[in-house]
TrEMBL record:
<dbReference type="InterPro" id="IPR028359">
    <property type="entry name" value="UDP_ManNAc/GlcNAc_DH"/>
</dbReference>
<dbReference type="Pfam" id="PF03720">
    <property type="entry name" value="UDPG_MGDP_dh_C"/>
</dbReference>
<protein>
    <submittedName>
        <fullName>Nucleotide sugar dehydrogenase</fullName>
    </submittedName>
</protein>
<dbReference type="InterPro" id="IPR036220">
    <property type="entry name" value="UDP-Glc/GDP-Man_DH_C_sf"/>
</dbReference>
<dbReference type="InterPro" id="IPR008927">
    <property type="entry name" value="6-PGluconate_DH-like_C_sf"/>
</dbReference>
<dbReference type="InterPro" id="IPR036291">
    <property type="entry name" value="NAD(P)-bd_dom_sf"/>
</dbReference>
<keyword id="KW-0560">Oxidoreductase</keyword>
<dbReference type="InterPro" id="IPR014027">
    <property type="entry name" value="UDP-Glc/GDP-Man_DH_C"/>
</dbReference>
<keyword id="KW-0520">NAD</keyword>
<dbReference type="Pfam" id="PF00984">
    <property type="entry name" value="UDPG_MGDP_dh"/>
</dbReference>
<dbReference type="InterPro" id="IPR014026">
    <property type="entry name" value="UDP-Glc/GDP-Man_DH_dimer"/>
</dbReference>
<dbReference type="InterPro" id="IPR017476">
    <property type="entry name" value="UDP-Glc/GDP-Man"/>
</dbReference>
<comment type="similarity">
    <text>Belongs to the UDP-glucose/GDP-mannose dehydrogenase family.</text>
</comment>
<dbReference type="InterPro" id="IPR001732">
    <property type="entry name" value="UDP-Glc/GDP-Man_DH_N"/>
</dbReference>
<feature type="domain" description="UDP-glucose/GDP-mannose dehydrogenase C-terminal">
    <location>
        <begin position="313"/>
        <end position="403"/>
    </location>
</feature>
<dbReference type="Pfam" id="PF03721">
    <property type="entry name" value="UDPG_MGDP_dh_N"/>
</dbReference>
Amino acid sequence: MAVVGLGYVGLPTALALAESGRPVIGFEISEARLADIKAGRADLLPADHERLSRHLGGQLEITSEQSQLAAVASIIVCVPTPVDEHLVPDLSALQGACTMVAETAVQGQTIVLTSTTYVGSTRELLVGALEARELFVGRDVFVAFSPERIDPGDASHTPERTPRVVGGVTEECTRRAVDLLADWTPVVHVVSSPEAAEATKLLENTFRAVNIAFANEFASAVRALNLDPMEVIAAASTKPYGFMPFYPGPGVGGHCIPCDPHYLLWDLRRRRVGSPVIEAAMTSIAHRPLHVVRRAQEVLAEHSTPLVGAKILLVGVTYKPGVADVRESPALEIIAELVRRGADVHYTDPHVDQIHIGERTLTAEAPQGPWDLVIVHTAHPGLDLGWLADEPVVLDTTYRLPLPHRQVL
């Protein structure tokens, strides 16, 4: 079988399949990405690095040769589905992958899309391209949608430990997709159609977005009441039903929450369907990094330090702890806005050597001060933050540091 796309989703998927005993072809158009994988530079969990060293060149072959896709019985498509600067879905990678897979498809193949996208995209982008070649889905080839559920950096949510949802274009498509998934994932939940499966993933991440936006709002509200939001959330979490904890922070990043709900909103707008709760949540999430900047300015003012010329250190710039991923990280917008307002901004992060802010390149530094303000953005596991006890002004956007003098958002 083949996995198309060897990014944060595709490579762990390919490794899980190889571990299950299947020979896997990993297809990737980026030669730079292929070089990183071969050199062991891909950002993976330690267990996946070990799998990569065992399977690469054996159970797992990686290539940029499109023709090899015609030699496999099944294909899983795992390409990125971001949004552009106007929060409009960027379908170029998915459209390109569907066109390529349709061009190389042969009779009998099973093709499963996993990339998060709008409802109806499996039929529009893949089924249409296949039938234009007179390969009829359900008879000649078999197509389903099964949304990815990768949680980067979390070893408890690997592909083979996480249930999958699958919906085929026909009953036979569903049956074949279930057969493909069942021996390397613990539970396969069947839905009635690819559209139901597509909507499932949009619900999952829109649910998270709405609740994170609410957690951020609640945290600011209880700060006004001189309460610790984490204490209140921990107390509410003792209720065994009707409550699920979500936690405040500096914003959201990565490949899911900042992007996926916009696929739903975009599709609903096309259909002239309103969604005020989702719209408000995504607006709140988009404004969160600016809230961090305003709060930083307030904290500095409380210590009689102007923002202009203030020496500020950001601790951690990845979008979540334990990964090297800065895609959509709130830290990038926070740094850009602080710089725009005249601050002297630096950062430290053991996972990220350099970041690009507009035309500027910043390099990670050791955290030696003195600093006018330290903003803790991402607290990586195992990172020694004991030195923060000696920093007079700390803004803790994680709400988790045991520092009596910390400030929060």
